[in-house]
Request: fold
Amino acid sequence: MMAADQIPTALVDRLRSARRVAVLTGAGVSAESGIPTFRDALDGLWSRFDPRELATPDAFIRHPARVQAWYRHRDRLVDACAPNPAHETLTDFYARFESFSLITQNVDGLHRRAGSEAAVRLHGSLNDWRCFACARPAPPPDVRSETDVPGRCPICRGLLRPGVVWFGEPLPPDELDRAMEAAATADVFLSVGTSGEVYPAAGLPEMARQQHAFVAEINPQATPLSAGMDAVIRLPAGRALPAIARALDS
Ligand code: BJW
Ligand code: ZN
Reply:
C-alpha cells in the first residue's frame, strides 16, 4: 500500500512509532541544489576528468595544482548554491523524533547551512584546508587551473589539501563511531541519494538492518543496497522527504 506521493505506508507506520531514526545522505540530496553527483559528467574545464579519479591521494601527489583547482572550483559552485527541501526537511527531523542522527558523506556543508549543525560528516568538509605535510590548518589556495603554481603551507612549504577524505584514507574516527552507533541503535534507517558503493558508509544500512531497524532507500535509481531494503522510494530526495513529513502529519 502506498500513501500519497508514493510513500509506502509501512515506512510511515514505522516512523510514527520510531524512537530512534538515522539517515545517511549522499551526493543525490544536493543534486536538486545544482551540485553535480560523482556520477554526473563534469562540465567545462573539468569535462575530461572522472571525479572519483581526482579524489585520491595519488592524483593529488601527481597533479597537486589540478586537484587544488578542482576543489576550489567546487567551493565556488557550492557558495552559489543553497540548501533544498531535502536538507530542510532533514533539519526538521531533529525536532520530530525523540532521537535523530543525520550522517552525511557530503563535503558541501549544505546540511549545516540548512541548520543541521550536528550532522556527522563522514568524508570531511570542502572548507577546512590543511597542509599535506605538517597538517596545520591553512587558508584555501587561490589556484584556478592545473597550470597555476600549487598552493603551499606558509609554515613548512608542504602542499595544501582540502579537508576531505580521499579513497584509501581513514574516515575521522569519532565521526565513524557516531555513525555506527546511530546505525546499530536505529529503529528506522533511511539511505538517501547515495549510490551505496563507497565503504564504510555503504555498510551502515546493512548494519542497521541486522540490528532489526526498518531500512528504506530514497533514490530515483536502483543501487546495490536496494535489494536489502524493506522499502524503496524512487523519487528525488527533495520531493520524497517533504512527502514523508506530510504523510506523518496527516
Ligand atoms: C538522487 C538524486 C536526487 C541523483 N534525489 N537521489 C569494503 C569493500 C570494498 C571496498 C572498500 C571497503 N572498505 C573500504 C573500501 C575502499 C574504499 C571503497 O569504498 N571503495 C569502493 C569504491 C569499492 N573506501 C575507502 O577508501 C574509504 N576509506 C577507508 O575505508 O579507509 C580504511 C583505512 C583504515 C585505516 C587506514 C587507512 C585506510 C574512504 C572513502 C572516501 C570517499 N571519498 C569521496 C570523495 C570525498 C571528497 C570529495 O567530495 O571530493 O567521497 S569519493 C565520493 O564517493 C565522495 C562521496 O561522499 C562518496 C559516495 O558517493 P555518493 O554520495 O554515493 O554519490 P554518487 O555520485 O556515487 O551517487 C549519487 C546517487 O544519488 C546516485 O545513486 C543517484 O541515482 C542519486 N541521485 N539525483 C535522490 N535528486
Ligand atoms: Zn605545513
